Amino acid sequence: MTTMKITHHLTDDLILGYSAGTLTEAVNLIVASHISLCDECRAAVESYDAVGGAVIETADTVAVSDDCLDGALALIRKSPATGATSEKKRRNDPVLPAPLLDYVGGSLDDVKWRSVGMGVKQAILKTSPEATARLLFIPAGTAIPDHGHNGMELTLVLKGAFQDEDGRFARGDIEIASEDMHHTPIADLSEDCICLAVTDAPLQFRGLLPRLVQPFVKI
Amino acid sequence: MLGSIDILDADHSAAVAPRDTTCDAKGQSAARTRRVTEKTREDSAEWVERIVRIRDNKDEAAFVEVFGHFAPRVKAFLMRSGADAALAEECVQEVLATVWNKAALFDPSRASVATWIFTIARNKKIDALRKQRRPEPEDLPWGPESEPDQAEIIGLQQESEKLGAAIAALPEKQRDLIQKAYFGDLSHSEIAEQTGLPLGTIKSRIRLALDRLRHAMDQR
Hints:
The structure holds two protein chains of two kinds.
Chain A: H1 12-20, H2 25-37, H3 39-58, H4 68-78, H5 98-104, E1 114-117, E2 120-125, E3 132-138, E4 147-149, E5 153-159, E6 161-164, E7 167-170, E8 174-177, E9 186-187, E10 193-199, E11 203-205, H6 208-217
Antiparallel strand pairs in A: 1-2, 2-3, 3-10, 4-11, 5-8, 5-10, 6-7, 6-9
Helix pairs in contact in A: 1-3, 2-3
Chain B: H1 12-16, H2 23-57, H3 60-80, H4 85-101, H5 113-129, H6 150-168, H7 172-183, H8 188-195, H9 199-218
Helix pairs in contact in B: 2-3, 2-6, 3-4, 3-5, 4-5, 6-9
């Protein structure tokens, strides 16, 4: 995993938000997935966590009630004896990093794809409703119709690659498209492309046909 | 491996102003930084040692000390994040119980005790206040080492102390900004809007602190 050359990374705002715990669940999911593939952004998140620790040390305190400690000790005595048992088992999937395996409930084979036309398939993952996370399967050489965004769109490439006005994005790369960006992503010819896309508002399509289809495919 | 931390202790305008007009403020700030550094240096190693005692001996006395120091801090964090006092206390108990139960997973060559507890409290905040799952990144392929190297532990802990001292030494307004980013929902750009501080200044300040820390972690 460390041999990949990732050239498109998370922004500082996303890294800070992930560390501080202020992002929505779908955005947290794409950030956690990118970090799983990108050592550079993982180090950045751990650094921001360290600032969080320093902040907790330096900020004001609020006294706890007298029986708060007893409550914590009672919780401890109630909890089953642990050792390293709470350590997560490491699973391997060549395409989906661990956070996504949790959300699809298994492996890539367990993804419940639905066709959205032109061979493109999607699977919407269950997250809190402020933003939507979906896996996209784009056949090699296929173009997603020219579209803009009402809000933010984050796209993480998991397999294959695509190209748009902003450059080429391959496994591990994340594209951050803002409200004013219009783009027409085209999957590489050599390989089918699988992406995780997170949007916090519906996309805007320019062509008539995609606009008509949009309500039905929930893009 | 690290030089002075005064890159963080003067505000931007003072840093570019002629030396003679700023030496008083700088002197005070440096004194404060030293005090904080000395205090936390002693503390940091002690907190690690207490977590080890909890891990190895199920030492309740050590836990009481950890609780006494961190519970009021975690409570403040949760209340500033929007919890009422009752919910915050309930969460404090769960956070500190997690510290007990997961003491074996604490890696002192990767985080200070304060940082580790911050991440547990942050996750509890998402879980309890926002009722959301917290997607966690995949574990590192090489995993946590069974017994981390003593020099790495000392290096990382000292690094964390310096970071804490640097934040403590910030002018109050700037320290408040960084706190807001962690307690509330302020992004870098929102912090800049609220204060009129140029975004680049805020970013470079946080980044300098982080780069030093990252550098320390890269030396593993």
